[in-house]
Amino acid sequence: MNNEESILLLLTCCVDPKGMSFTKLSDVDLRVRQYYDAFDFYLANTTLKLLIVENTLFKIDEKYLNNDRIEYLTFDGNNFDKSLGKGYGEALIIDYALNNSKFLTLISNPVIVKITGRLKVINIMKILNNRKYNNQKTFISANVTWKMNFAYSHFFISSFDVLQEFVLKKKSINDSEGYYFEHLLIRLIKKFNKQYSAFVGFNSTVEVRGRSGSTGESYKQDGYLAKVNRPIKNLYVKKFLK
User: Fold this and answer.
1) What is the CATH number of the domain that holds 204?
2) Rounded CA gap, 81 and 219, in Å?
3) What pTM value is reported for the model?
4) Beta strand pairing status for 208-209 and 111-116?
5) What is the tally of structural domains in the chain?
Protein backbone atom coordinates (compact mmCIF):
# COMPACT_ATOMS: atom_id res chain seq x y z
CA MET A 1 0.00 0.00 0.00
CA ASN A 2 1.18 3.54 -0.75
CA ASN A 3 2.01 5.97 2.04
CA GLU A 4 -1.24 7.93 2.21
CA GLU A 5 0.54 10.99 3.60
CA SER A 6 2.25 11.42 0.23
CA ILE A 7 -0.99 11.20 -1.80
CA LEU A 8 -2.98 14.32 -2.63
CA LEU A 9 -6.26 14.45 -4.52
CA LEU A 10 -6.25 17.45 -6.85
CA LEU A 11 -9.87 18.25 -7.75
CA THR A 12 -10.09 20.77 -10.59
CA CYS A 13 -13.24 22.91 -10.58
CA CYS A 14 -14.96 25.57 -12.66
CA VAL A 15 -18.32 26.50 -11.17
CA ASP A 16 -19.35 29.01 -13.87
CA PRO A 17 -18.04 28.15 -17.37
CA LYS A 18 -19.24 31.56 -18.64
CA GLY A 19 -19.86 30.50 -22.22
CA MET A 20 -16.86 28.21 -22.53
CA SER A 21 -16.62 26.57 -25.94
CA PHE A 22 -17.29 22.83 -26.23
CA THR A 23 -19.09 22.80 -22.85
CA LYS A 24 -22.67 21.52 -22.74
CA LEU A 25 -23.02 21.12 -18.98
CA SER A 26 -23.05 24.77 -17.91
CA ASP A 27 -25.86 25.11 -15.34
CA VAL A 28 -24.16 26.64 -12.29
CA ASP A 29 -26.52 25.22 -9.65
CA LEU A 30 -26.23 21.72 -11.10
CA ARG A 31 -22.45 21.96 -11.28
CA VAL A 32 -22.25 23.07 -7.62
CA ARG A 33 -24.38 20.11 -6.53
CA GLN A 34 -22.14 17.76 -8.49
CA TYR A 35 -18.99 19.25 -6.97
CA TYR A 36 -20.32 18.95 -3.43
CA ASP A 37 -21.46 15.38 -4.07
CA ALA A 38 -17.96 14.49 -5.24
CA PHE A 39 -16.27 16.25 -2.31
CA ASP A 40 -18.51 14.41 0.14
CA PHE A 41 -17.72 11.10 -1.57
CA TYR A 42 -13.95 11.52 -1.22
CA LEU A 43 -14.24 12.68 2.37
CA ALA A 44 -16.39 9.68 3.29
CA ASN A 45 -14.59 7.00 1.28
CA THR A 46 -10.92 7.96 1.65
CA THR A 47 -8.68 9.39 4.35
CA LEU A 48 -6.73 11.44 1.81
CA LYS A 49 -6.24 15.19 1.71
CA LEU A 50 -8.18 17.13 -0.94
CA LEU A 51 -6.68 20.06 -2.81
CA ILE A 52 -9.71 21.72 -4.41
CA VAL A 53 -8.88 24.45 -6.93
CA GLU A 54 -11.61 26.56 -8.58
CA ASN A 55 -11.18 29.28 -11.20
CA THR A 56 -14.24 31.59 -10.95
CA LEU A 57 -13.86 33.03 -7.42
CA PHE A 58 -16.64 30.81 -6.08
CA LYS A 59 -17.27 30.93 -2.32
CA ILE A 60 -17.41 27.33 -1.18
CA ASP A 61 -19.63 26.13 1.69
CA GLU A 62 -18.10 26.78 5.11
CA LYS A 63 -18.19 23.10 6.08
CA TYR A 64 -15.48 22.43 3.51
CA LEU A 65 -13.39 25.43 4.52
CA ASN A 66 -13.44 24.20 8.12
CA ASN A 67 -12.31 20.68 7.27
CA ASP A 68 -8.60 20.17 7.92
CA ARG A 69 -8.40 17.57 5.14
CA ILE A 70 -9.29 20.23 2.57
CA GLU A 71 -7.28 23.05 1.09
CA TYR A 72 -9.50 25.26 -1.06
CA LEU A 73 -8.03 27.70 -3.56
CA THR A 74 -10.06 29.92 -5.87
CA PHE A 75 -8.84 32.54 -8.31
CA ASP A 76 -10.00 34.63 -11.27
CA GLY A 77 -8.80 32.27 -13.97
CA ASN A 78 -11.64 31.92 -16.46
CA ASN A 79 -11.28 35.16 -18.42
CA PHE A 80 -9.06 33.88 -21.21
CA ASP A 81 -10.08 33.49 -24.86
CA LYS A 82 -12.92 30.94 -24.68
CA SER A 83 -11.99 29.48 -28.07
CA LEU A 84 -8.97 27.88 -26.36
CA GLY A 85 -11.44 25.65 -24.52
CA LYS A 86 -11.90 24.20 -21.06
CA GLY A 87 -8.76 22.06 -21.34
CA TYR A 88 -6.65 25.21 -21.39
CA GLY A 89 -8.61 26.49 -18.40
CA GLU A 90 -7.96 23.27 -16.53
CA ALA A 91 -4.24 23.58 -17.27
CA LEU A 92 -4.36 27.05 -15.69
CA ILE A 93 -6.02 25.51 -12.62
CA ILE A 94 -3.25 22.92 -12.30
CA ASP A 95 -0.65 25.65 -12.73
CA TYR A 96 -2.27 27.66 -9.93
CA ALA A 97 -2.38 24.60 -7.70
CA LEU A 98 1.30 23.81 -8.14
CA ASN A 99 2.32 27.37 -7.35
CA ASN A 100 -0.04 28.16 -4.48
CA SER A 101 -0.87 25.01 -2.51
CA LYS A 102 0.34 24.81 1.09
CA PHE A 103 -0.45 21.09 1.14
CA LEU A 104 2.05 20.48 -1.67
CA THR A 105 4.83 22.26 0.22
CA LEU A 106 4.45 19.75 3.05
CA ILE A 107 5.04 16.67 0.84
CA SER A 108 8.54 15.93 -0.45
CA ASN A 109 7.57 13.56 -3.30
CA PRO A 110 3.82 13.92 -3.76
CA VAL A 111 1.60 11.46 -5.57
CA ILE A 112 -0.84 13.84 -7.26
CA VAL A 113 -4.17 12.31 -8.23
CA LYS A 114 -5.80 14.69 -10.69
CA ILE A 115 -9.57 14.28 -10.93
CA THR A 116 -12.15 16.43 -12.67
CA GLY A 117 -13.86 17.83 -9.59
CA ARG A 118 -17.44 16.81 -10.38
CA LEU A 119 -16.58 13.16 -10.88
CA LYS A 120 -16.40 10.30 -8.39
CA VAL A 121 -13.80 7.60 -8.97
CA ILE A 122 -15.61 4.83 -7.14
CA ASN A 123 -12.65 2.47 -6.79
CA ILE A 124 -9.98 5.08 -6.18
CA MET A 125 -8.48 3.37 -3.13
CA LYS A 126 -8.24 0.05 -4.94
CA ILE A 127 -6.35 1.73 -7.76
CA LEU A 128 -3.98 3.49 -5.38
CA ASN A 129 -3.40 0.42 -3.23
CA ASN A 130 -2.48 -1.63 -6.31
CA ARG A 131 0.37 0.67 -7.31
CA LYS A 132 3.70 1.41 -5.63
CA TYR A 133 4.23 4.98 -6.80
CA ASN A 134 6.62 5.70 -3.96
CA ASN A 135 9.17 3.38 -5.58
CA GLN A 136 9.99 5.85 -8.36
CA LYS A 137 10.40 9.61 -8.38
CA THR A 138 9.04 10.33 -11.86
CA PHE A 139 5.85 8.59 -12.97
CA ILE A 140 2.48 9.02 -14.61
CA SER A 141 -0.56 6.76 -14.88
CA ALA A 142 -3.36 7.42 -17.34
CA ASN A 143 -5.54 5.50 -19.72
CA VAL A 144 -4.58 6.00 -23.37
CA THR A 145 -6.17 5.10 -26.71
CA TRP A 146 -5.05 2.28 -28.98
CA LYS A 147 -3.51 4.77 -31.43
CA MET A 148 -1.43 6.29 -28.61
CA ASN A 149 -2.53 9.78 -29.66
CA PHE A 150 -4.81 10.63 -26.73
CA ALA A 151 -4.61 10.21 -22.95
CA TYR A 152 -7.79 10.51 -20.88
CA SER A 153 -7.60 13.53 -18.60
CA HIS A 154 -10.57 13.18 -16.25
CA PHE A 155 -8.45 10.95 -13.99
CA PHE A 156 -4.71 10.44 -13.96
CA ILE A 157 -1.93 10.10 -11.39
CA SER A 158 1.38 11.91 -11.62
CA SER A 159 4.56 12.98 -9.90
CA PHE A 160 5.11 16.71 -9.40
CA ASP A 161 7.72 17.08 -12.14
CA VAL A 162 5.47 15.64 -14.84
CA LEU A 163 2.68 18.07 -13.95
CA GLN A 164 5.17 20.92 -13.78
CA GLU A 165 6.31 20.16 -17.34
CA PHE A 166 2.65 19.96 -18.39
CA VAL A 167 1.83 23.48 -17.22
CA LEU A 168 4.98 24.83 -18.87
CA LYS A 169 3.65 23.48 -22.19
CA LYS A 170 0.02 24.51 -21.63
CA LYS A 171 0.03 27.24 -24.31
CA SER A 172 -0.03 24.53 -26.96
CA ILE A 173 -3.60 23.58 -25.91
CA ASN A 174 -6.21 25.03 -28.25
CA ASP A 175 -9.53 23.21 -28.56
CA SER A 176 -10.60 25.26 -31.60
CA GLU A 177 -7.52 24.07 -33.47
CA GLY A 178 -8.07 20.46 -32.40
CA TYR A 179 -5.17 20.22 -29.95
CA TYR A 180 -6.64 19.25 -26.58
CA PHE A 181 -5.41 18.78 -23.03
CA GLU A 182 -5.42 15.05 -23.82
CA HIS A 183 -3.02 15.48 -26.76
CA LEU A 184 -0.48 17.31 -24.62
CA LEU A 185 -0.85 14.70 -21.90
CA ILE A 186 -0.01 11.78 -24.22
CA ARG A 187 2.90 13.75 -25.65
CA LEU A 188 4.41 14.11 -22.19
CA ILE A 189 3.68 10.50 -21.28
CA LYS A 190 5.75 9.42 -24.26
CA LYS A 191 8.54 11.86 -23.43
CA PHE A 192 8.83 10.92 -19.76
CA ASN A 193 8.48 7.23 -20.45
CA LYS A 194 11.34 7.37 -22.96
CA GLN A 195 13.56 9.21 -20.49
CA TYR A 196 12.62 7.58 -17.18
CA SER A 197 10.35 4.58 -17.93
CA ALA A 198 7.79 6.74 -16.16
CA PHE A 199 4.57 5.09 -17.24
CA VAL A 200 2.85 3.04 -14.52
CA GLY A 201 -0.23 1.19 -15.73
CA PHE A 202 -3.47 0.84 -13.81
CA ASN A 203 -4.12 -2.68 -12.54
CA SER A 204 -7.86 -1.99 -12.22
CA THR A 205 -10.52 -0.50 -14.47
CA VAL A 206 -11.22 3.11 -13.50
CA GLU A 207 -14.85 3.21 -12.35
CA VAL A 208 -16.25 6.72 -12.69
CA ARG A 209 -19.63 8.19 -11.82
CA GLY A 210 -20.73 11.59 -13.09
CA ARG A 211 -21.35 13.53 -16.30
CA SER A 212 -19.00 14.93 -18.87
CA GLY A 213 -18.89 18.72 -18.99
CA SER A 214 -18.09 18.60 -22.71
CA THR A 215 -20.97 16.38 -23.85
CA GLY A 216 -23.35 16.20 -20.88
CA GLU A 217 -23.25 12.39 -21.15
CA SER A 218 -23.03 10.17 -18.07
CA TYR A 219 -19.97 8.02 -17.59
CA LYS A 220 -20.71 4.31 -17.95
CA GLN A 221 -19.84 1.38 -15.71
CA ASP A 222 -16.29 1.16 -17.05
CA GLY A 223 -15.61 4.86 -16.54
CA TYR A 224 -15.85 6.00 -20.16
CA LEU A 225 -18.44 7.77 -22.24
CA ALA A 226 -20.47 5.77 -24.71
CA LYS A 227 -19.06 7.56 -27.78
CA VAL A 228 -15.34 7.63 -26.96
CA ASN A 229 -12.72 5.11 -27.99
CA ARG A 230 -11.99 2.54 -25.31
CA PRO A 231 -8.47 2.73 -23.86
CA ILE A 232 -5.81 0.19 -24.69
CA LYS A 233 -5.17 -2.31 -21.91
CA ASN A 234 -2.31 -0.96 -19.81
CA LEU A 235 -0.56 -4.34 -19.96
CA TYR A 236 0.39 -3.48 -23.55
CA VAL A 237 0.98 0.26 -23.28
CA LYS A 238 4.68 0.35 -22.44
CA LYS A 239 5.50 -1.75 -25.50
CA PHE A 240 4.04 0.92 -27.79
CA LEU A 241 5.02 4.10 -25.94
CA LYS A 242 8.65 4.07 -27.00
Assistant:
1) 3.90.550.10
2) 28
3) 0.89
4) unpaired
5) 1
